[in-house]
Design a protein that fits this description.
By secondary structure, the protein is of the alpha/beta class. It has helices at about 30-40, 95-115, 160-165, 180-190, 210-220, 230-250, and strands at about 5-10, 15-20, 45-50, 60, 65, 70-75, 85-90, 120-125, 140, 150-155, 175, 195-200. It contains six helices and twelve strands.
C-alpha cells in the first residue's frame, strides 16, 4: 500500500458534513467526548483508515472488533448552515510521527473529494503546573488560568475564528500543537478551510470526565441535540472512563502509560 486509505461504506452520504476529529489528548478528553457523541448522536460505524505501516491490531469493545483509526456517521441536528451530517474520526492510538503528514493528507484529500463543509478538532491541555505523559505529543499553550475549567480555541481562517467568538471561546494566543491535531490544523490553514479546534484544560493524571463534559457543553452550540443537564452528563462521562480503562487493559496497557516513543495507548 503506497498511501493511507480512508475506507468508508459507499452507501453513506458524506457531502456537506461536519467532521469531528478526536485523536489522543491529555486526560483522554477526546476519547470520552467521542464515545459520548457516538452514543447520544446515535452515530453508526462506517469504516476506518488503513495503512500497512500502522500496527495490526483491533480494539474490542462490547464484543465488537474495531480498527484503531475509525469513522462514524449520523444525521443529528447541526446549527452550521448547510450541514446535514456529522462524521466522527477517532482513535485511542498515538499515530507514529513519521505517518502523521501522510495520514493527514489522505484525510484532507478524502474531505475535498466529498465536499466536507466544516471541521472540529477536539483537544486538551494539561492544567497549569501539571505535566502529562504524552511525550512528544502534549500541546504547549499559554492561557489565562481561572477557577473554572478553561476552554480555548484555534481557528484556521477568519470565519472559523468568528465562529469561536460567537461561541464565547477565547482564542489561543500562543502555543504549540503537535501530532495529528497539529497536522490537521496546519493543513487546514494551508488550504484556507473553516476548521476550528476546541481545547479544554484537563487533569493529565487520569481520564478527566469533567473536562470532557465542559467541552461537550460548548459543542451544544454546534449540535443542539446534546444539550443535557451537566450532572447526568458528568455521571455518564465517568462511566465512559471505566469503559475506556477496560478497553485499554484488554489491549495490554497499564493504567499509567508508557512514555516511550512507541507507546500506542495511554490514559
Amino acid at each position: 500500500m503506497d498511501a493511507p486509505s480512508l475506507r468508508i461504506n459507499t452507501a453513506i452520504e458524506n457531502e456537506n458534513a461536519m467532521v469531528i476529529a478526536c485523536f489522543p489528548s491529555v486526560g483522554m478528553v477526546s476519547s470520552i467526548v467521542a464515545h459520548y457523541l457516538i452514543d447520544h448522536l446515535e452515530l453508526e460505524f462506517i469504516g476506518g483508515l488503513v495503512d500497512d505501516r500502522l500496527p495490526a491490531l483491533a480494539l474490542v469493545n462490547n464484543g465488537t472488533p474495531l480498527p484503531p483509526i475509525r469513522a462514524y456517521a449520523g444525521n443529528p441536528k447541526c446549527s452550521i448552515d448547510g450541514c446535514d451530517q456529522v462524521i466522527l474520526l477517532m482513535s485511542e492510538m498515538v499515530v507514529p510521527e513519521p505517518l502523521v503528514h501522510k495520514i493527514v493528507w489522505a484525510l484532507f484529500e478524502w474531505s475535498k473529494e466529498h465536499e466536507v463543509l466544516a471541521g472540529v478538532v477536539i483537544d486538551a491541555f494539561a492544567k497549569a503546573g501539571m505535566k502529562s505523559t504524552m511525550e512528544g505529543v502534549e500541546p504547549v499553550v499559554e492561557y489565562e488560568d481561572t477557577e473554572e475549567i478553561d476552554v480555548v480555541g484555534i481557528g484556521c481562517n477568519d470565519a472559523a475564528r468568528e465562529l469561536l467568538e460567537k461561541m464565547e471561546i477565547p482564542l489561543l494566543q500562543q502555543g504549540v500543537i503537535r501530532g495529528m491535531n497539529g497536522g490537521i490544523l496546519s493543513e487546514a490553514t494551508r488550504r484556507g478551510l473553516g476548521t476550528i479546534s476546541m481545547m479544554v484544560e484537563a487533569d493529565p493524571r487520569w481520564p478527566d470526565a469533567r473536562a470532557a463534559a465542559a467541552l461537550i457543553e460548548r459543542l451544544n452550540v454546534l449540535l443542539p441535540t446534546i444539550d443535557l443537564p451537566s450532572e447526568p452528563l458528568i455521571e455518564e462521562a465517568e462511566q465512559l472512563e471505566s469503559q475506556l480503562k477496560a478497553l485499554m487493559e484488554s489491549a495490554g496497557q497499564s493504567e499509567k502509560p508508557s512514555t516511550t516513543s512507541n507507546a500506542m495507548l495511554y490514559g
